[in-house]
Design a protein that fits this description.
Layout: E1 3-5, H1 16-20, E2 26-28, E3 33-35, E4 55-57, H2 67-76, H3 92-95
Antiparallel strand pairs: 1-4, 2-3
């Protein structure tokens, strides 16, 4: 099992989850975070820290979010590790409850 960052994170990119990760498995893109499944130790510390509930165990993903398993794996290989909290984008709260955000993902 590993944890997966899902669509809710796109354009919100709160980094509260990064601060509690003991193994630095988060990677940062322009407007999204991902978890490296090879580094994740399944500690579950990140899941309750996410203010938009974007992090799930891979076997508990909500309907329509399974494609994020492969997306986390792919992008973790390309994006740099993030290991400390950063300010959220200025418009993050405006994107908080928006659905169908995959089209806004910047690679």
């Amino acid at each position: 099992m590993t944890f997966i960052v899902t669509e809710s994170c796109i354009k919100c990119k709160y980094t509260d989850c990064v601060e509690v990760c003991p193994v630095d498995c988060f990677h940062e893109g322009p407007n999204f975070l991902v978890i490296d499944p090879e580094e994740c130790i399944d500690c579950a510390l990140c899941e309750p820290e996410c203010p938009v509930e974007a992090i799930y165990a891979d076997d508990d993903l909500p309907d329509g979010q399974s494609e994020f398993i492969a997306l986390n794996e792919e992008l973790a290989k390309k994006w740099p590790v993030i290991d400390s909290i950063k300010p959220a984008p200025e418009d993050a709260d405006e994107w908080r409850d928006v659905s169908d955000k995959l089209k806004y993902l910047e690679r």
